[in-house]
Amino acid sequence: MLICAAAVVPMHVVTRPPLEQAAEEKITAEISRENKLIEQHKKESVDVIDRMRRLNDDDVDKYERQTIESLLSPDFQSVLLQHGVREDVATRVASLLARITVSLIDIAAIEHTPGSSIVVYFRCGSVRALYELDEMITTGFMQAAFTEIIHCLTSSTPTVDVYVKPDDFDFILSSLTSLQDTGLFWELKGMQNLI
Predict the structure, then answer these.
(1) Residue 142 belongs to what domain range?
(2) Are 11 and 142 in contact (CB under 8 A)?
């Protein structure tokens, strides 16, 4: 029997040239604030709750997921605009959060490492969600999304790269698919409270 506990995946967002610390702090604070607003909305909105229930059904196909995503994105954007988020930022963040929501992924945390990178911790509740996150990264969706968000939030236009360290991905995947009662447990340093 397979265990499918939640896993937290660290995705690194690196800019060239590196952003100043103040810009990194602004980006992480802004995305964190907007994510919290949407997470609260997901708990309170009857329509979103119904859509989330539907996403958990086994018979949801790709077309229906796309339909739900197309409904969530403007809904999320509206919430962000109501809370004073600039329209260009709200549009891009709402699109990102709608995409990860339909894949049953959420942002567990976001932090910056001065002079190094911004790290976004994505919570994946299943092996499928983990693979969908990997697909979003390898197809360039995450790079495009974070490039647009960073360009909107800063006065510069750095090159943006995103990646998950292969060892992290492999370790998380093996942890999610471990056989029950084998004693294989793991935690990400400092992030065990996010699961």
Answers:
(1) 7-182
(2) yes
